[in-house]
Design goal:
CATH topology: Jelly Rolls
Protein name: Dehydrogenase
Mean pLDDT: 91
Organism: Kumtagia ephedrae
Number of domains: 1
Strand content: 15-25%
CATH superfamily: q2cbj1_9rhob like domain
Structural class: alpha+beta
Shape: globular
Number of strands: 13
Radius of gyration: 19 Å
InterPro entries: Phytyl_CoA_dOase-like
Largest sheet: 7 strands, mixed
CATH architecture: Sandwich
Oligomer: single chain
Helix content: 25-40%
Distance between the termini: 37 Å
GO molecular function: 2-oxoglutarate-dependent dioxygenase activity
């Protein structure tokens, strides 16, 4: 495992590795540990990095299936195995890749992947009853060198219209070592997210209901993000960004208040990062109606 001091980490043009003291590593958990111990760790940390919860072979098979759908779009390097997810250096063909992506979002194959028995059974236990998987589910690929990365945010900003008993499952679809830019978490930030949300709730109190739940009202940033400048955030809140070498089969659960972001994919061999993030909640709780349709480019979220 390489030292954090020798890793090259950037996000939206800001270098995280200039301050190694502001970097740390996520703590892994074994899904077979007693549930009360895992639940206590989740409450303490704001996340659970569950090693090998899913079948590695099944995750890699879905990765191959996913990239196989892009065979005629120019996304993949010619002559390569779709399972490797090697990006082509040539321009993509007229937006066809985007069209294919949103077809996959609506596909039975993707729905089936998100409903792996190991996952929903764990969430049923973790939530203390039947769990509900939100229909709006996101799956994204990131090419090496893509200039933009997801900025720092917490998920409740986009899900204020329902229960707060939410759990996000972030699933790397393939191995995602630190250099490929998987999710990074601001250490102990779930308490900070709660404080920020309380401040926004107070500021939003006089807004109409539809604006009050929006991530894009006049009291929020235009993206719903807290910041794109991750190093500045670490200094401002006196915390570390936690990174990890994720593997196919891993699942990270995080609180709706936990602040997280992504870094640039710096893979030297052209390997694309692929991941999906999906949300669970108790089935009996109020559901944010905006999340009851498939993810689409114009859904306003």
């Amino acid at each position: 495992m390489p030292s954090l001091s020798v890793l090259s980490l950037t996000s939206n043009g800001y270098r995280l590795d200039d301050s190694p003291a502001r970097l740390g590593r996520l703590t892994a958990s074994d899904p077979a540990e007693p549930l009360d111990r895992l639940a206590a760790r989740y409450e303490e940390q704001g996340y659970l990095w569950l090693k090998g919860l899913l079948s590695r072979d099944e995750v890699l098979a879905f990765r191959r299936y996913f990239f196989g759908q892009f065979a005629t779009t120019g996304l993949l390097a010619p002559g390569t195995d779709p399972g490797d997810g090697i990006a082509s250096s040539a321009p993509e063909a007229g937006g066809n890749a985007r069209k294919v992506l949103f077809e996959i979002v609506r596909s039975a194959a993707y729905e089936s992947f998100c409903l792996k028995q190991q996952l929903w059974m764990f969430l049923d236990r973790f939530l203390g009853g039947m769990s509900y998987l939100h229909k709006r589910k996101l799956i994204r690929y990131t090419k090496p060198g893509d200039a933009s990365s997801t900025g720092a945010h917490y998920d409740l900003v986009y899900l204020r219209g329902g229960t707060r008993r939410l759990v996000t499952a972030w699933i790397p679809v393939g191995d995602v070592p630190v250099r490929m830019g998987g999710l990074v978490y601001l250490e102990g930030s779930h308490s900070l997210g709660r404080r920020l949300e309380d401040e926004f709730a107070s500021a939003n109190a006089d807004l109409p209901p539809d604006e009050r739940v929006s991530a894009f009202n006049r009291n929020m940033s235009e993206t719903g993000w807290i910041s794109k400048n991750l190093p500045e955030m670490a200094e401002r809140f006196d915390r570390r960004w936690l990174v990890a070498d994720y593997e196919a089969g891993d699942v990270v659960l995080h609180s709706p208040y936990t602040i997280h972001a992504a870094t640039t994919n710096a893979d030297p061999h052209g390997v694309m990062r692929l991941s999906t993030d999906i949300r669970y909640q108790p089935v009996a709780d109020d559901i944010d109606a905006r999340w009851s349709s498939h993810w689409s480019p114009d859904d306003g979220l």
